[in-house]
Amino acid sequence: MGDTLFDKIIRRDIPAEIVYEDDDVLAFRDINPQAPVHVLFIPKKPIATLNDLTAADAAVIGKLLLAATSWAKAQGFADNGYRCVMNCNKDGGQTVYHIHLHLLAGRQMHWPPG
Ligand code: AMP
Q: What distance in angstroms lies between residue 63's CA and the mean position of ligand 1's atoms?
């Protein structure tokens, strides 16, 4: 069992605005949203960074992305579009060491990101 902030959210030790949950994935609104919609999709399995993924995690990662895209469709903004981001380690801007997929929507995104 991990003990990051996100593990505490999975265990309901700290509150979050949860928008989706299944056996493998939890999704909740980012506390500091960078777009009108900003949701974090996380695996329940504690994996610190993208560098820690192994072949055994292929299904978990697939489920994470499918959960996010299914939720985007269900919310009605998928056709307009959205952005999915996963940050890795310091230079990637990662601050919570439990992998997470940022789903951002509701405004025009720009490229390159900062
Ligand atoms: P990253 O910088 O990619 O590691 O993303 C971590 C994200 O977690 C940031 O966008 C934070 O705003 C978000 N965050 C931090 N604490 C919380 C919390 N208690 N509930 C929801 N989101 C959080």
A: 20
